Amino acid sequence: MKAVHRSDVGRVRAVNEDRAYVAALNNGYYLAIVADGMGGHQAGDIASRLAVETVVSELSALPQDLQDNQLAHALEAAILRANQTIFHIASQDEKYYHMGTTIVAALFDQSQSAGYIGHIGDSRAYTVDRQGIIQLTEDHTLVNELVKNGQIEPEDAVRHPRRNVLIRALGTDAQVEVDMMPITLGNGQYLLLCSDGLTSMMNSEQIWSTVIDPSLPLEAKADRLLGQSLDAGGDDNITIILLKQLESGTMGEGWNS
Q1: N or C, where is the chain less crowded by C-beta within 10 Å?
Q2: Which residues form the PPM-type phosphatase domain (predicted)?
C-alpha cells in the first residue's frame, strides 16, 4: 500500500486546525487519520492534535496478530479514549469549553488490505476505482439529518446556512458513539480520507475524475485535489490522505507520507 497526505490552511482561515497522520506502526498495523478541529482560542488545533496523538499512542501499543473483531474494537476504543482526553482537558479550562474535532481513521491489518474505519463528524472516507466513487461515511451534521428526514433536498444542503453544524463530534461530550465499518481494498483501489474543506469545494464526480486519472502519480493526484479546492475558493482548511492498494506482486513497496 502507498499513501500520501496534504494539508493546507486554505484562503480564508488564519490557522490550520486540521491534523493528518498516516504511517505503518511498529506492530505491523497501518493507520491513517484525518481530524478537523473546532473551537475558539485555537482550541480546535489542540483538539485535533490530541485526537491524533491519542489514537496513535493507543494503537501503537496493540499486540500483533489481533483477530478481525479485535481490530475493530481496538480502533473504536482508541477513538473513545481520545474523546475522554479532549473532554477532560476542555472541562478544566474555560478557554477550551466546547472544543472538539471530527475524526475519520482507518486501521488496516498486517496484510494491508482489510481493516476498519472509525468515524465521528463530517470528515469523510471514500473508496475510488474505475467503476466510481463511494462515500463510506455518513456526515453527522444538522443538514444531513434534514435531508434524511425529507425536510430539504440534497442539492440544498450544499448551500444551507447551517451546513457546518455538527450533531456529533469528538470531545464535546463525555460519551460519544463511533460509527464503525469494515473496509477491504482491492488491487488498484484507492481510499480517500478528507476534511470538509475538500468536499465543500468539490463534488464527488470532480474528486473521482482527479483520483482516477491514469496520467497522474499518487502524489500529483493529492496535489491536484488540493489545488482544485483552493481554486474553488479554499473557504476552510483542506486535508487529504490518499491511499492506493498496490497491484499484486508490489505490496512490499510500503507507505510513503
Answers
A1: C
A2: 2-245
